[in-house]
Amino acid sequence: MRRALAGAASSAIVIAMALGVAAQPAPPSGIRDPAWSPDGRRLATSSFDRIWISGGDGRGGRPLRAGSPATERDPAWSPDGRRVVFSADSGEGFDLFVAGADGRDVRRLTDAPGDDRWPSWTGDGRIVFSRRATPFDSWRFFTVTEQGTDAAPLFPDAASDDEREGRVSPDGKRIAYVSDRDSEDGDVDLWVADLDVAERGRVQRTRLTRVGGREGRPAWAPDSARIAYFAQREGRGSVWVVTAETSGGESALKERAPAAAPILVSRRGGAPAWSPDGRTIAISELPPADPAYNGNPLRNDDDAPPLFAAEGFSLWMVDAPVAVDAGAHEVDGPKPSSRYLTAAFDRVWETLRRLYYSKGPSAAEWTALKDKHRPRATAARDEAALESAIDQMIAEQPLIKPAVSSNRAVVVSGHPLASQAGLLALEKGGNIVDAAIAVAFALGVVEPEASGIGGDGMALVYLAGMPEPVVVDYKDQVPIHATSDNQVLRQNTGDGPAAANIPGVVAGLDHLYRRFGSKKVSWADLIAPAVEYADQGYVLDESLPTSIAEGRRFIQKYESSRKIYLPGGRVPRPGERFTNKDYAATLRAIAAQGAQTFYRGDIARKIAADMTARGGLITLDDLAQYRAIERRPLAGQFRGHAVYSTPPPVSSGLGLIETLQILDQYQPQRGASYATDADYFHYAIEAWKVRDQSGRIADPALFDVDLGPHLDRAHAADLFKQIDRTKASRYGGAERDTTPPARIGRGTTAFAVADADGNMIAVTQTLSTWGGNFYVSEGLGFLYNNHLRFSGGAPGRFLPLTRSSTTSVPTLLFQRAEGSPGPGQPVLAVAAAGNAWIPASVYDIILNVVDGGMSAQRAIEAPRFLVGRDPIDSSVGRIQIEDRIPRPILDDLIARGHRFSKIGRKGEVRYGYAAAVLVDRAKKEVQGGAEPRRSHAAVPQK
How far apart are CA 95 and CA 237, in angstroms? Predict the structure, then answer.
């Protein structure tokens, strides 16, 4: 399988800044991958997706290959300095090429499926590089001759862990690289390996770093005794130097220890290159890394960084190593011509075409937008002008997914087959609750890493005539024996049987069926589509394979999980048919015997027996006592709308309502949105920051939960007064969270159903992280949640029978009518998945619908933002944004003191996976909004 063309190009001209002058926002140089020639007189870099050859000081320069259509990366000089090997992607994946230093005699060295990256020369003229066949496979070292012959694995043992970014030492004896080998927590560490395998008959690998975070881009000192490398700690990048010699003793590394502790060289984190005279380290600064895996499917595995990153891709030189940042000075990079700026525009357009507009009516619209805005890009003379042209094109993007409406009902969920299951329930005479039940069971099969019968959920239901919506709480519970002194929990790594809470999904869906279902469709008929999908299989897209690839190290620990999710010992690939016969059998039993079999019958006994045998804590007593609970929702107001959301034990409903009521004090212009109005965006951010929701939200059955004034409009008005129109506020009180970031974020799904009569349901279900505990009980087929993992969190985490607290926030909006009974006219049902992006996405969508006047699909596809704390200075906010908000808006907000981190490529829709349904009872119309960020589908009833 070969991937799509690399999509975005980093670009711009560097503005030099002297040390001691406060750093101001400045265009980055787009420079990456520095490599010095052996004589130190030339520096090869990748800039504007081309290999450039500059002077040894990094100034000036020329493209190695003029007019190349490929994306070029990873230059490395031959030992004699006459040739440069590099990787290049012309549209079907990266391959290796070699060229003379003058750009002549260009030859392809490899042409294999997948990607070949990070070449490095050995002393005998061979080239070592990393290869993977698909994005779902591991990187493995290979070698090839300079003539492109005899490509073969470097090492005889086939490592299942990544081996990437390798650099051969100047003496040719070792290779430094980064790997997640022997890492339970997914950390990427710095390793070295001896190249002389024949001497020992096995590969001698040594881990040089073992610190929470990520290492990368090793670069050898000329003496082959030290290595400079990039490190990311708590969101901040830096460059360090460590000795490559080892003490030979055992240490906390569980390997031979480095002879000396690493030395901090620069707080400018980036890819280093050590000059041949040993005096200088060049650093191409990297932007902040994307957040942990959060369910985003790998649809386009290009290597392009975010275009016009606010931080990163500038070239610095530092003295090696003396004092931290000694002699640091920024270097002017290559100055791009109009041709390269235009090429950057074309790459952005092409990436988005391949991702979203390769077929259908939108393909022609996207081509027309290119024709409309490309002349501005061609006329651009700097990055700002280029970005303006791209931003305007993106602002006029056609919808990625078609608008869906019906005069009967619409089902929106995280997978087309699950939405079809809901539609089938409606077609059989069922109501919106029946449809939601069918969707929930189906999602456990077709999106099993996000939810399923081993997880939990919350549903917010409104049926016409109710005085207010009802919450059905089926959150998971802590097992009876999960007390804080239980040694099993002390050894809990977040995966396996010991990480599982008592599941609630089957009980919750049973409660919904009995209390709110139509009774026109049988329980078995609602489960039937899920049984079919599990038994007969379904064709995979990128979503599940991406999640399995991310969690492979955990899945492969358990035989029962491996046989389902790693069939044949590998990650299943998009386009293949995926079956789960054991899950089908379990669902058949639930369909035939009812929910009781899961909690008090045959399935319960199988679960309990397996947990006892495998070290889990769930018992028959735990399962038998479980019940779903009805609760009253929290209620607030926003722009004349009644807002209903989730109560404790879930924490996010209170925060959402308080934030909306604060923003309600600000009166925007008609049709305003945060993507087009800087003042509105400022207030939307500040409303989120000044809220003071209680930190003690937990299970109300076991704790006194006092919501205080946080739902009061008067309190919201007082908080609004803290907002200064001219500057960003600072956080107070809370300290920085020092918990290492998880590699894998929380795995959740969300769906919504509504009909033209105003009946609405919004649901969020979860396994906690993507893949839950990665464990399957033999013969049952489903994954369990891992809410019991050992870490800090909500009160009662290890108090028996406590219900878990999460960020789930299904929400319903009604248009208030004075004097009318009930909550008002139904308007919106919305829910989202995606960890911290859950409440942010619901908030964003409500603003887009209520203030922006957007349709359901347009509100879903609008740019997303997430307000948080800066990982370095927790008193300051940092807003993560999809890179689809125009530069003038961001410049305005930066001037007010806001800080931003761009997520994903230019124009890409990336985080938060929402479902939304809009109801217009006057028109008897329902609109559905389906998420393009994952595999969602909106299906109308005709």
Answer: 29
Backbone phi, then psi, for 330, in 5-degree steps?
-85, 150
712-750: per-residue pLDDT in tens?
Answer: 999 999 999 999 999 999 987 544 443 444 444 556 899
Structure-model confidence comparison of residues 838 and 158, the more confident one:
838
Say yes or no: domain 31-336 is CATH 2.120.10.30. yes
**Predicted confidence band of residue 67 (pLDDT cuts 50, 70, 90):** confident
Token pair in block for residue 208: 């040089």
**What does residue 776 show for φ and ψ, rounded to 5 degrees?**
-120, 125
Confidence at residue 728, expressed as pLDDT on a 0 to 100 scale: 96
Do the bridges between strand 877-882 and strand 900-903 make them parallel or antiparallel, or are there none, so unpaired? Answer: parallel
Q: Which of 20, 931, 15, 772 has its CA nearest to residue 415?
A: 931
Q: At what angle do helices 652-663 and 713-720 cross, to 10 degrees?
A: 60
> Could you give the CA distance from residue 380 to residue 942 in angstroms, rounded to a whole number?
49
Q: Which amino acid is at 334?
A: P
Identity (one letter) of the amino acid at 107? R
pTM of the model: 0.86
Residue carrying the six token digits 């990982």: 871
Q: Where are the domains of the chain?
A: 31-336, 343-395, 404-632+737-941
CA-wise closest residue to 410 among 155, 7, 759: 759
CA atoms within 13 Å, Cβ hemisphere of 32: 25
**Nearest partner of 941 among 410, 430, 439, 520, judged by Cα:** 410
Residues in the chain: 942
Q: Encode pLDDT of 10-66 as tens digits.
A: 322 222 222 222 232 333 467 889 999 999 999 999 988 889 999 998 888 889 987
pLDDT for residue 307: 54
Query: Which H, E and C letters describe 65-80, residue by residue?
Result: CCCCCCEEEEEEECCC
Q: Which two tokens stand for residue 352?
A: 């988005």
pLDDT digits (tens, 9 = 90+) for 496-525: 999 999 999 999 999 999 999 999 999 999
Indicate the SS3 state at residue 410. Answer: strand
Alpha helices in 175-314 (DSSP H): 197-200
Question: Does 153 sit behind a cis peptide bond, omega within 30 degrees of 0 on the bond before it?
Answer: no
- Residue 718: CB partners within 8 Å, gap ≥ 6? none
Burial class (CB in 10 A: 0-12, 13-18, 19+), 794: buried
Question: Residue 928: beta bridge partners?
Answer: 404, 917
> Cβ(891)–Cβ(734) under 8 Å?
no
Question: Which residues have a Cβ under 8 Å from the Cβ of 359 and sit 6 or more positions away?
Answer: none
**CA separation for the pair 550, 272 (Å, rounded):** 27
Distance CA 675, CA 397 (A): 13
In whole angstroms, what is the distance from residue 749 CA to residue 764 CA? 6
Task: Answer yes or no: are the C-beta atoms of 691 and 659 closer than 8 Å.
Answer: yes
Distances 793 to 647, 695, 806 between C-alpha atoms, Å: 18, 11, 10
Question: What is the second-level CATH architecture of the domain 404-632+737-941?
Answer: 4-Layer Sandwich (3.60)
Whole-number pLDDT of residue 746: 55
For 77-103, the pLDDT digits (tens) are: 999 999 999 999 988 899 999 999 999
CA pair distance 654, 635, nearest whole angstrom:
9
User: Between β-strands 634-638 and 641-645, what pairing exists: parallel, antiparallel or unpaired?
Assistant: antiparallel
CA 65 to chain CA centroid, Å, is 35
Q: What is the rounded CA–CA span in Å between residue 650 and residue 457?
A: 10
